[in-house]
Amino acid sequence: MGLGDRHQKKDVEAALRRAEASGLKVTHDKNRHRWGWVICCPCKESVTVYSTPRSAGGAAHRVDAFIRHHRNCA
Questions:
Q1: Given the DSSP bridges, would you call strands 45-50 and 34-40 parallel, antiparallel or unpaired?
Q2: DSSP string, 4-19
Q3: Which of 43, 58, 44 is nearest to 12 (CA)?
Q4: Could you tell me if 9 and 56 are in contact, meaning their C-beta atoms sit under 8 angstroms apart?
Q5: Orientation of helix 10-21 relative to helix 56-70, angle to 10°
Q6: Radius of gyration for the chain, computed over Cα atoms and rounded to the nearest angstrom
């Protein structure tokens, strides 16, 4: 992720950084509602990250749950 690709909600941004540190791919999409995705490359599953989630904590929790579920993919 580049500097301009940061998420505006600090909780979500922290979760995205944890995803990258875990080896998952974080992609930024310039769509109105969708900020981007977190992708597990080995199994091709992904989770959508929204630009303006109803709950930033809930969105961060979804990313963290995805990280836990895909931590051992290789």
A1: antiparallel
A2: GG--SSHHHHHHHHHH
A3: 58
A4: yes
A5: 10
A6: 11
Name, in order, each residue with C-beta under 8 angstroms of 36's C-beta and a sequence gap of 6 or more: 5, 26, 27, 28, 29, 48, 49
Q: Is-contact 41 25, C-beta < 8 A? A: yes
Q: What are the Cα distances from residue 59, in Å, to 2, 34, 42, 45?
A: 21, 12, 23, 17
- Full-model pTM: 0.89
Residue with tokens 């998420």: 7
Domain boundaries, the chain: 7-70
Return averaged pLDDT per consecutive 10 residues of the chain, 74 residues in all: 78 96 92 90 94 93 96 75
Question: Can you tell me which residue has the tokens 């929790």?
Answer: 61
